[in-house]
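CORE FACILITY INTAKE
Project code: CF-77B
Contact: R.S. (postdoc)
Sample description: multi-component assembly, two entities in total
Requested service: structural model of the whole complex
Turnaround: standard
Below are the sequence entries exactly as provided by the requester. Do not edit them.
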Amino acid sequence: MLAVDSQFQLANWQIVALAHFSLYLVTKFPTMKKFIALAFAIIISANLSATNTLNLMPYPSNVKVGVGKFTVDRNLRISMQGQYNSRLTPNVGRFVQRLSKRTTITLDRDTIISNQANATFEIKVNRPGPVTRGYDERYRLVIDSTRITLTAETELGALHGLETILQLLDRNDKGFFLPAIEINDTPRFAWRGLMIDACRHFIPVDIVKHNIDAMAMVKLNVLHWHLSEDQGFRIECKTFPKLHQMGSNGEYYTQQEVKEVIAYAAERGIRVMPEFDIPGHAAAWMVGYPKLSSGPDTNRIEKYFGGFRPTLNPTEKYTYKFLKKFFKEMCALFPDEYMHIGGDENNGLQWNENPKIQAFMKKNNIANNNELQVYFNAKVLDIITKNGKKMMGWDEIFQPTLPKNIVIHSWRGREYMEQAAKKGYQSVLSAGFYIDLFRPASNHYLNDPLPADTILTDTERKLILGGEATMWAELTNYETEDMRIWPRTAAIAERLWSPGNINDVDDMYRRMAITSMQLEETGLTHIKNREMMMRRLCNTYDVEPLRILLDAVEPREGYKRHGSKPRYTTESPLSRAVDIALPDAPDAVNFRLILKSYLQNRDQASYLQLTELLNQWALCYGRVSNLVANNAALQEVLPLASNLTQMANIAQLLLPMIQSGKTITAEEATQIKDQIKELAKPVAEMEEVVGESIGIMVEALKVK
Amino acid sequence: MLAVDSQFQLANWQIVALAHFSLYLVTKFPTMKKFIALAFAIIISANLSATNTLNLMPYPSNVKVGVGKFTVDRNLRISMQGQYNSRLTPNVGRFVQRLSKRTTITLDRDTIISNQANATFEIKVNRPGPVTRGYDERYRLVIDSTRITLTAETELGALHGLETILQLLDRNDKGFFLPAIEINDTPRFAWRGLMIDACRHFIPVDIVKHNIDAMAMVKLNVLHWHLSEDQGFRIECKTFPKLHQMGSNGEYYTQQEVKEVIAYAAERGIRVMPEFDIPGHAAAWMVGYPKLSSGPDTNRIEKYFGGFRPTLNPTEKYTYKFLKKFFKEMCALFPDEYMHIGGDENNGLQWNENPKIQAFMKKNNIANNNELQVYFNAKVLDIITKNGKKMMGWDEIFQPTLPKNIVIHSWRGREYMEQAAKKGYQSVLSAGFYIDLFRPASNHYLNDPLPADTILTDTERKLILGGEATMWAELTNYETEDMRIWPRTAAIAERLWSPGNINDVDDMYRRMAITSMQLEETGLTHIKNREMMMRRLCNTYDVEPLRILLDAVEPREGYKRHGSKPRYTTESPLSRAVDIALPDAPDAVNFRLILKSYLQNRDQASYLQLTELLNQWALCYGRVSNLVANNAALQEVLPLASNLTQMANIAQLLLPMIQSGKTITAEEATQIKDQIKELAKPVAEMEEVVGESIGIMVEALKVK
């Protein structure tokens, strides 16, 4: 029976050493990881090449796999037919370029031809598609051994079809091909967005642009651009230039850049909706224009995060005069029919403390701050409407006197969205899509805005326009932005595009890994910046020990990282180990999946794969010790490596016991679980997640 | 004695297996590479942390290492004193940010203070530095345990000093520090450039910008921007808009972008000199303005590479009227005092065949095409001069009637530069700095414009202004541009900055590896894009077998790749294995260095390291076979892997023979060398370079 005591570690080492190969060998060749990686790679490669398992993401609404394949070679000839917006041409150009890069086949300017008769790939479009809410995005793709036919009502559907073709591309030793297939695809929700917060940390234009390319790859269609905050006013304002000049650290988008981004997005079928968050979250406005403030607080660009006092004054004419001019300029700059006015998290402190505001409320029978904000919103709505726009705002703006064409953006919970729908209001869901919270992709993937058991009626369901992944940027900057958005946003994109019954988490992870690699074609740095940041942190090229550690652990979820000392500010470097840890620790996820398979099948292959991963983790502490020996920046991860190694040691002992059919008592199980719990305590803002799998092993051993 | 026969490979495997560890183990753990990498990493880490070996690049002209160290922590306080241009402030800001990222210490806005008395790091500047040729770039850096003092005549020297400090940053387990030191540094040459050819392939603005940052890191000070070519006219021209509209595929720099790049460079102390290559290399001009042409050829943007017929007509008034307006616009746009007019490789065919031109030459006593180009150049010089600029051009423009303030840009050989100097003309050397030729860094590093045995007198030497690394872009594009420029350009930067006697190749490679990693701070993709491109090519995350192969081989040198079929065009994808192979194959370089050490010392450590590398290569063929099995894009590398494995097999046999003191006859040596020669034949535009080291092993075995 198992003795959980101080000899545990040694006993474990000995058992593993005897069971598989000598400790001598393990010590001599400390890098078993790659062997495992190789085994996985073979599995992945097999998947990539399997024609019976499509790697599409988001998965189309209707797919029929045929027989045969279309060979992709330098004889490819593409023709475009019908009435389409000119954006189709550059997209076909990029399609050809990506195909060429992947296949290494030169597909030159002659690939696109005008003569339909000679085409092997025909694109047919009925009418130009405006990039507005609810445009027709359907497409039909038919591939047989001689021909590709892509049909769409608007070229915007055709763009989606081009992405699907690139996801279908397969290869063998002779060449590249597409499987014979018939796809009829239509999105489940019309509003599929990504919000980029460019305020907490500024996100440079080129990063915004390659995120737009990535959005197009997974069929998202709304870029929600969060442009003003306590921590920065991030867009050039010609009417009130002190907004960007004094309200930012010099990092803001010029109007020229904004126009470029809008055009760039429109070319890819993506709307750009700006957000100017008022009356709260607006400290940066008041640095240049202190008259906007409701209180006597010193106005400054906030460097800390959280809620702050500065709030626009809703009782002064100056405020509305200002907003009238401001929105006139911004509504003209952004062609989208929606203007997002934020409206969230007004703490009301300045309003409470300002006697003039209190007097105003009394005089106008405004009972509380909520009602005062309703009063403010009505004024803002009037301004927005007069500029030809519809208003959108976070949950808090909702109240039933607003016109029905506004859109509620639910962030506090699905119930707010449902309440709004019950009252006849449209909404977009972001609760459950907060990708800044370091939650695994599966969590967001299963967050269906309209689950099978929704409380909404058919009519009410139509008011749920879709959802948005929200990338708040307190703990991300230009180096990690892509890594925090992708690949998890691909899972959200699928949730918003594909039918609700496409919800197999394991298959989603399989496809997401492939999609993630393809997303690199956009210039996205979500994979490559991780190694770069490890090199900087480790101060050497060989970052493998750190990678092994970080591939097994995850950043603390939710807002727990904000509890750290010293407090995070906009100037924190965000270059620590936790900044490279991923919300889906890849090796921990693998371990969990293989364990699941092993417990079902008791097969040797899974057993050996588990053993290899455990051996790698068992050696982690020693290898990380060497790596961090002379490196102050990495000292903090040593206890984390120690915990991982100790957990692996426990699992190394449990695994052969499961294999040989041994059992443990409930008491022993509790003892081990307590030990795991202790080892799983957060270190350096990261958490061990292998412990969950060990818990499953313990359960498997327990006398029933 | 050695029998070179068909049994060779088997015998070799057996010997290795017996000598070191069983073949079973090698097969079971095919990834020995990482073990070696780890061993190297320890060596590198040791170097990174060694205070007695400075990692400075370019190495300063005068260094005195002191005793003690300055601790870098959040108490750092920086003050700037004296008269300086405002560019100093943002540079100090970036300095603080980079320091913060590397150390993971938050150094916020309070780090920069105005009160000199409280500063721990004082920057003193005498006067603002104009970013023009020959500005004062000297700096003096004194660091003791309590204080950093950086003194410079202009802030441009101070910028160099900031880079030196970042290169001095060291760490241990307790924290970060700078060694006590006194550096007095001054550049050897005033003109230290990088030429970016944005024409053969367009290089987007953000790539140009991060290359400017990288230039600043290694103290280069001229960006030479090659903006017009047969394959594209890459800048917006307001006077003649058909130049960029019809002369490019839509990829060109707007004037707004050009202004941004100039300002970006100036902020970093870097001049931007444009080149408009005339009268040859000008096909793209004539697509929109066919009247400029000297012949009846169809005008088109060239997609092939090489020399082409279209040449400006030097006998028509239209040409000069055009150039007058054109240069007026461009001279106003670019503030630099130099305008580069190209002037190279005019094949003269259109001139020969045009009867009007021939008549003109006869009438004006112009004997040949050379003289006609002299005539043309004189006219252009007049235009350039009237716009307040000095003229620069490639070798071919040189002739002794030109004014002495022009600059000859030598590309054909150092002798052209010397000839010009002998006649009193200034020049800049690019011959030997052609980084497009896939030559190793050592080759460029030892290319001293003024070697100890120069034929030039002291006065003539002063006419050698410096040099430029030239990145012609036939075989590179946005994905590989950084990888082709860096890190080799750091070696050229050192050649142009440091004293001529700083020329130890091994130490250069050691420091270049460290500098290369630091260069990633600019956003440069020279390291990270390689893995991304391997993932795309391998269609899987585990690219290790391909990496092992590519780390041992090099692209064919010179212009040999242009001999391939199908011919390269501007539309070739440049996504093949050869596009990721490096001019300094890292593992082959390591093997050479370790072998050198082993042959000198016959030490076991080196012996084992060599063995590990050979084992890894011996397994390469098998591993690559698995990787390429279903991948048409990689089939071409299989014979290369086979050759590498066979070479390793030979070396695996030779190494124990050297160790045990065996000898071979001259005849046997020839046999082996012939075999190596056969295996070293180019495959897929790449070459085996391990063969050179094996040749050295054979020599070591030969009976003397």
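Facility notes:
- The first strand of chain A starts at residue 63 and ends at 72.
- Chain A touches chain B through 71 residues (CB under 8 Å).
Invoice: internal transfer
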